[in-house]
Amino acid sequence: LFTSKDPDVWQNIIKWYDEVKNYDKTPGLENAIQELVVFVESYLRYGNNLCGQSLPIDNSTHAYAGLQLPNDPRSILDIKKFEQFPPEDEEQFPKFLQATFPLIGRINVEVKVSDKIWDLSSLQEANKLVLLDLPGLGADKSELRDRFVNVHEMENVQTILLLTYGPRPGSTTNNEIIDLLRKQRKNQNLDDFILVGVGRFDDLPGAEVGIDKLLSNTEQLTEQKIFDEIPALRKVIENSRKLTKGNDEQRIVFMSAFAALEYLIKNLDSTIKIATPTVLENLNIFQKHFPDLNEKWQQLSERLKKSEPDSILVTWLDAFTKDGGLSRLRYLLENHVATHGLEQLYKDVNVKVQTLVKEQQNLAQKVNNPSLAKLLASENPKLRILRQALRELADSYKALKTHLEKNPLELGVGIDETRSTISLRQEVEEKVNSEISRWSEWRTLFLKIKNGIVNLPQVDSEDENPFSLEIIPQEGTGKSFTKSDELYPSFQETCDQLEKFIQERVDQSIKDWLDELSNKLISLKDNQRTINVKEIRSEIENCVVKKEEIEKNIKNLLFIASPSEWESMLLQIVKRNSSITIDPDTLFPLPREDKNSHEPALIFGWSPDHKQATRSIPLYENHLTFILGLRDTIICSVSDSFIQILSKVNQTVNEKIQTVFLDNAILTLQDKLLGNRTLLKQMVGEEPTEKTTPDWLLILQELVNIPL
């Protein structure tokens, strides 16, 4: 029924509902029928346009408003029907989301989390965690949908965190979820998948009164006495142990979201955003009573530790009172994902592979049936080799694109980490430092420093010394600079030289990167794949037969298989989008004399004219320290500017290689070449009119020959 595309079937459900809705008033059945009708009505309105698609939502405000659903799902049907998907009017978008909500299978929210809150680097190279926040069971208005979503979405999940609700310690909803999953995944032991979190533990019924009684009693404290005074605690622990089948009590954690937030706010930099303003307002209310309760739990744990140091309850309470269970929860999730999760994923995939191998073997027997032999045309061996080479090249480029998405290209560094060299960024930083540090102005001044002070000779005027002679300075002992703009000529020359140097190095780095991709064996560690474009290109060249009518197609194919030939086009694109130019006038970090505005240059403290200057720096006790600082300032100014430009160039190269070259190459290989059997036959020298094997049989043969 639910897979039917016949609109009459769906319309008949509505008619049936109108007939039976007044006959049976059983609450559960009535709610289920109403929920079914809301779903069917939504499908009739929007199903053909929306189902099976993903809809990106950029406006978080509209998304939030659209997910504020009415208490009665039937009121969704009162919303007018939208003819556009989604509506152009952004103000209508929240209503559109509400109207189509019964059809939504999953909402993906991407969140960037500061590593100060949760460092995910231990999760191998993914650096991310996918959390599926699924609805519980038991909601009157969405029971059917909730059951379906829980079973369907958790079909391939390896780590399941079940949240029990502290204020209602006797709830059995999670047991129902597990029972559903056990039926769905009969061949798996779900006990190994489960972690249990007791949410809102700070709202455990009767906890504070019970703790007060226990703390006022000076007798030795035991777990049994605690359970007698706080029955709700006994209940949540019993339920949690049932969910883990008592196999591993270490998989249980007591939790409080507000306590965790309070801990983060106290211990993290105020610039790190932790929660929304609304949540923070509620946190203020929470903070009025929680510290006292938390301290009481802590005292209770310390008392129990003295009498029963090995009690698991001590472990749970210590983790809760420290940070609301946050650290323990993170540890449990990371450890489970890194150990059991990956192990189980391997087992699941291996089972599916073995099933696929058996199906492939069954298919091979049917394809090789003698009755099909008369349909088979003798295939040119080169055609099979060419097809395999094209498929391998497409897969290699896909793997490289995935690699670049996770590990963006850095100019100067090889694709294969085993051949990594110094990055162009480091090279530029060292070059800037070297060029500016070698200025003759610094050497001249350093020669005149004694005890940290620059000593310049006092030059008498010609009127006072008629016998003065012009002395030609030796190398390294030229005129010392005393004003800021006397450094500008060297600054300008250095900037010009660096521009040329960086442009040459960028060009060479791009060439080296493309040459490496074209001619060397590359190992991509993140997806355990080896790329050998040179070998693939050689196979293609050995297969194709150049013909005039398909010369352009063959030329394009060889271009795709020769990344080194992308160089000229890529350089043009990069120069068009990211120019390596800099304006020395704007970049110079010191004031210069401006005759138009009568702005003077800066006079340094060792200048004889320092006292008379209208714009001078304060006198420093140590000129050497100031000069070294001045040199570092100029180096940083130039280095930062060129690194910023280089970063943009690097970003452009990375983006264009993925979009302009790899994406187009993959599309051409898959759709225009592998999808065109006639063209492939022509490429290997066959005539299109020759007897051919039916397409459907070729597809089956390819499926049989896929290595597993």
How would you describe the overall organization of this protein?
This protein is mainly α. It folds into three domains: 1-104, no CATH class; 106-375, no CATH class; 383-455 and 475-692. Helix content is 54%, strand content 4%. It is built from 25 helices and seven strands. The protein has helices spanning 7-20, 27-50, 60-66, 93-100, 143-153, 173-184, 207-216, 223-229, 231-243, 257-267, 277-286, 290-307, 312-323, 326-367, 381-406, 424-437, 440-446, 488-519, 533-543, 551-560, 567-577, 584-587, 623-673, 677-683, 695-705, and strands spanning 160-165, 194-199, 252-254, 449-450, 453-454, 522-524, 529-531. The strands form three sheets. The chain has a three-stranded parallel beta sheet, sandwiched between helices. It is globular.
- Radius of gyration (CA) equals 37 Å
Number of distinct beta strands: 7
Give the helix tally. 25
Report the end-to-end length measured between terminal Cα atoms: 36 Å
Trace the largest sheet across and list its strands.
1-2-3
- Report the helical percentage: 40-55%
**How many structural units, i.e. domains?**
3
